[in-house]
Amino acid sequence: MNHTENLSYFVAHFVDELSKSGVTDVVISPGSRSTPLALMFAEHPKMKHWVNLDERSASFFALGMAKEINKPVVLLCTSGTAAANYLPAIVEAYYSRVPLIVVTADRPHELRDVGAPQAIDQVKMYGDYVKWFHEMALPEIENNMLHYVRSIASRAVSTAEQDNAGPVHLNVPLREPLIPNFFLPNLWGKSESSAPFFTHFSGKKELSERQLEGIVSHIKDKAKGLIVCGPQMDMEFREAIFKLAMKWNVPVLADPLSQLRAGKNEKGLLIEAYDTILKSSDIRAKLKPDYIIRFGAMPVSKPYLFFVKENRDIPHYVVESTEGYREPALLNTQYVYADPHAFCLACAEVNLENDAEFTNRWIELNNTVKRKWKEDSEVLTEGHAVTTIQKCLGDNHILYVGNSMPIRDVDTFFMGTSAEVKIIGNRGANGIDGIVSSAIGAAAHGKKVTLLIGDLSFYHDMNGLLAAKQCNIDLTIVLINNNGGGIFSFLPQAQEPKHFEVLFGTPLDLSFQKIAHLYEGYYARIESWSHFEDELEKAYQSNGIKMLEIVTNRDENVSWHRELWQDVEKMLLRIVGNH
């Protein structure tokens, strides 16, 4: 066979095997060397292809999509620095455990390290941020090479999604000519079988009866327990964790990204306001637990971090489904490697009961904060923007939250809701880059998505809006514009006024209305809370890009937050003082 036939069959079997292994979506950054792969993905009848011109935007777009559909998404780019632009999203995917299959086209070996254009060293270029790297063979179909290429594709999918999910990297060297022949007979291989090349059977880890008894024996005489759930994406987990909580009468401190604050389940033991409650060191001292069991990653809340550091002497259990060491407080931790559902249900069979006074104190404090947040505010504040968004969200809606201040305001002000809402953020590496593209990726399959983001983070990724425009993706953007990096106003750097604005405040002084119009989106500057609510309702009834800008003042925002926290602290101290 000639080169074109070898190339065509080799690449076709690779793409077809990805499809048979469960992949439905590929995000393509156009380029020359990736031509046969891009054309074959576009030609495959079961593969949905998305074109995103900017590689950094494309990679975060794929990340957001993979989070929403909860399965691997393929990323494809040409050789050279195009592949380097994928790195930030790959880092985020690695730390947030999101499955991606990164396919980078490359020059053939004879064109490497000889000064050929667009040729860089792509071998293991993402280092330890991928679960698996493989340099693929040059395309040919003799000597079982079609079985080889299918085995690599199938292995890539299973590696990306099994255990702790994450990105894998396949580097594909290709020689010219690069145009495949779609008219070859039996291009996709045998059509009678839809099974993947490798079939995987993977069971869930469960503790033995003796192991479970060992844990219970350490806490059976400890009457002040806490269950904590940090960021995680299993929407079904809430049933198991609340069953355990109700059986033991244990408060559940739920991060906004835990998926526990939403849904129609019983929320009597849900503590959403723990971040506010724990801001006071005096109150933290009154709430010392006897043990903590944590599921998911470390919560967003910094006061919670202070809380656990101040209680190093108590038993800390971190439950991980397979493996991992997510304990940034550096506590003397007992790791439980078991399926979280099975662990909760097994523990619920054990007769333990929390101290009622301890549990009721948490509930009373939580309800006090929630009542405070319901008080009306005439001033447009960043915190009350969250409460208004929550009021307007319906079932099957996604709230995608930017880092820095937005996620902290969601942590503070987003209380429990019966609406089936998914809250997503990029909290693996906590960067402010790529958030717009991630939200657009999450919206690509038709879910209603509201993006809550600050102006600086929006600026970092505003070119991501092109994909929303070109693919007719519906996205509502709530832009909190405090003209710079608002979170730095809360940090010690704010006490250095000489250099603060240039180095940390970083005002943009941009017209975001013009940016919205550049991408043919709708724009409204919010003037009041009633106006905001009306605009949100209109946005959810329309299609395309909608930008709702709330202009705030950084200094006023800091003062408002601190005064509010001081008022709440006084209220909560009166409660804990009565116990």
The helical percent reads: 40-55%
Per the CATH scheme, the topology name of the largest domain is Rossmann fold
Q: Would you identify the CATH architecture of the largest domain?
A: 3-Layer(aba) Sandwich
Mean pLDDT, to the nearest integer, reads 92
Shape: globular
Instruction: Determine and state the CATH class of the largest domain.
Output: Alpha Beta
- Major beta sheet, strand line-up: 2-1-3-4-6-5
Helix count equals: 22
The total domain count is 3
Q: Low-confidence spans: pLDDT under 50, at least 5 residues?
A: none
- The CATH superfamily name of the largest domain is Thiamin diphosphate (ThDP)-binding fold, Pyr/PP domains
- Quick one: how many beta strands? 18
Could you explain how this protein is built, in words?
It is a single chain. The chain is of the alpha/beta class and 579 residues long. It folds into three domains: 171 residues, Thiamin diphosphate (ThDP)-binding fold, Pyr/PP domains (Rossmann fold), CATH 3.40.50.970; 164 residues, Rossmann fold, CATH 3.40.50.1220; 188 residues, Thiamin diphosphate (ThDP)-binding fold, Pyr/PP domains (Rossmann fold, 3-Layer(aba) Sandwich). Helix 3 packs parallel to helix 5. The protein is globular, with a radius of gyration of 26 Å. InterPro entries: MenaQ_synth_MenD, MenD_middle, THDP-binding, Thiamin_PyroP_enz_TPP-bd_dom, TPP_enzyme_TPP-bd. One of its GO terms (biological process) is menaquinone biosynthetic process.
